[in-house]
Amino acid sequence: LLNVRREASSEELKAAYRRLCMLYHPDKHRDPELKSQAERLFNLVHQAYEVLSDPQTRAIYDIYGKRGLEMEGWEVVERRRTPAEIREEFERLQREREERRLQQRTNPKGTISVGIDATDLFDRYEEEYEDVSGSGFPQIEINKMHISQSIEAPLTATDTAILSGSLSTQNGNGGGSINFALRRVTSAKGWGELEFGAGDLQGPLFGLKLFRNLTPRCFVTTNCALQFSSRGIRPGLTTVLARNLDKNTVGYLQWRWGIQSAMNTSIVRDTKTSHFTVALQLGIPHSFALISYQHKFQDDDQTRVKGSLKAGFFGTVVEYGAERKISRHSVLGAAVSVGVPQGVSLKVKLNRASQTYFFPIHLTDQLLPSAVFYATVGPLVVYFALHRLVIKPYLRAQKEKELEKQRESTATDILQKKQEAEAAVRLMQESVRRIIEAEESRMGLIIVNAWYGKFVNDKSRKSEKVKVIDVTVPLQCLVKDSKLILTEASKAGLPGFYDPCVGEEKSLKVLYQFRGVLHQVMALDNEALRIPKQSHRIDTDG
Predict the structure, then answer these.
(1) Span 121-150, pLDDT tens digits
(2) Which pTM value belongs to this model?
(3) Which domains, and CATH codes, for the chain?
(4) Where is the J domain (predicted)?
């Protein structure tokens, strides 16, 4: 509202406050309606100045915005606290609110995996089934399935109960298990977890897991387990030591004793644009070396492509694939696995919120180029067809529905903001007239036209409706000494502005005259703007 930068000094705040007070002071207006409107806007300016002129409330607003000021409990905070202390106090108050809501929370997670045997598509024994009815069609079968689910129930701020279960079946044989775990956060540096389990394939299980930060850059995890079975007690111990090698790289050392004993070392580097892993394991029965790389594209769909090479006593496997966000809560991925002696497989995975659906499709036991080709091209063709014909129209309809709900829920507030903006423009008229006279006398900055809202320049979106408001007067009112400076914040909060298209991307388009020459600029809603500038000049040579 005051149009000051976040780092504004007290003098800058006072100057902006005085300017708006002069503009909106009720005593300057004789008309009863204008006087009433001026009084309301004057009070809003005064409230904004009170928040920003107080070091404590300003620190809260800078960090958490308006919602921070509405947080319960601030009235007990000492006035002399620093911004860092205020941040800690805010987080403490948030924790208290979370504790009151603990009993209403769970964190469900689940996985459904369906294994499909499609080897009949490429490895057919035609000579053995020539006389069998229906043998002309490939037989595709579901040969295994796995379902697991877990929920977390917070008991206190430090204790959490976890209940999980799973069911598995493969080629007609199956079983299940159920596990109960109790986790306690012992300090800011560590936690411990006790686990009890039972199943029809395995006997009772007792486990203990410990996590501890040894230093700010190093932590250790230990998992001990006792598996009871008809063959006796089978103990197991897994220890992982990890260290941050730099800001984006972590090194791991793992030692596993008991069932499938092994030693493993790996280095994982994760940055904004890539994820790289190299690992080496020596163990019984599996020893292998692994290298994998994932590239993260910086697009709205969070597209990622990946590839890996794994070689060991079991053979060699090359895997490549991609994943992409298809909606707000869903990520779809596919990978092709080519190996000796495993053959060729296609793995399709869908993550929907905290649920994972996994479909490994085994295509052939041999290295057939045709299987590799169809496993690679087939998912791409299906994805692009679904994306164009189903996903994109669905997301567009969902977005429109959400925008409509948002418009309805904010309709009253937007109407009030619109009335305030219109009132502000009426109150600005006299000031704007004086500013224009002063600027014209020195060939200064004159706002010819200004619009704020949604512009449609793309021909592919020409069916969309343009939603803009005229903000020529409010912008001219902000001109001082032939300069206009807008801070890096949404312009909907400026005096005389309001949001004409809630939830949609907005821009500000300005046509202005400086030293008798026309200039034009378009800025995004949250983009800082300074005019005049030489780069805004309109070339009239042609």
Answers:
(1) 887 655 555 555 555 677 888 989 999 999
(2) 0.64
(3) 10-80 (1.10.287.110), 416-536 (no CATH)
(4) 1-65
